[in-house]
Amino acid sequence: PRFIELVIKNGGAIYGVVTGPGGEPIAGAIVMLMTQSANADGWGGVPPARSDSQGQYRLEGLPAGAHYVMLQLPPDKQDLGTTPREIVNVALGEEKRHDFDLSGQVKLSGLLTLSGEPNGGRITALAFSGGVIDVEWIGLSGDRYEVMLYPGTYSLRGSGHLNLNGTLANIVVPTGVAEHTLDIDLPIVAT
């Protein structure tokens, strides 16, 4: 008789630690992912993971390929700002470490005007895209905005009572500061 050796590898894994601005572990954060070969419901068939009291999480049984990894902060930590969303490549059977470090964000705030005039509720939400942030939507409080972002260049989009298409502006969030004020005047003519 001939024997054939068959080696079956389990799926890969992504694991890591979720830490806050001061390096403290964040418990109760939910780590989710999508894969390039996602099933019909958009999720790669792997249940999300929740970080433990040490901030540690683990996603197992992943197929080889690129995985879009996202973090949802627990309700008591929502004020920590935006969360990175990144692509992590995993080979068959590989265990890859991917930490979520929320330090280094900048509190960006300012006044939003349209062609020098008050916004007046015409734009009700802004979306910042770029860096490690795919899209971060924020609601507006009158004519002012406030968002936590990592340093980098972002394209700005909006929604509201105007017909808005594409990028409205590009903004730069500076490094080395905790807060930055940036008034944004969008050249929009209301119709």
What distinguishing features does this structure have?
four-stranded mixed β-sheet; 17 strands; single chain; five-stranded mixed β-sheet; 191 residues; elongated; mainly beta
What would you call the shape?
A: elongated
Helix content: under 10%
Total of helices = 0
Given as residue ranges, the uncertain stretches (5+ residues, pLDDT < 50) are 38-43
User: Beta-sheet strand percentage?
Assistant: over 45%
The CA-CA distance between the termini, in Å, is 82 Å
How do the SSEs run, as a string of H and E? EEEEEEEEEEEEEEEEE
Radius of gyration: 21 Å
Global mean pLDDT = 80
Largest sheet properties: 5 strands, mixed
Structural class: mainly beta
Q: How many runs of DSSP E, i.e. beta strands?
A: 17
Short description:
With 191 residues, the chain is mainly β.
List the helices and strands and how they pair.
Blueprint: E1 12-19, E2 30-35, E3 49-50, E4 56-62, E5 65-72, E6 86-90, E7 95-97, E8 100-101, E9 106-114, E10 117-118, E11 123-130, E12 133-139, E13 144-149, E14 152-160, E15 169-173, E16 179-181, E17 184-186
Parallel strand pairs: 1-7, 1-8, 9-16, 9-17
Antiparallel strand pairs: 1-4, 2-3, 2-5, 5-6, 9-10, 9-13, 11-12, 11-14, 14-15
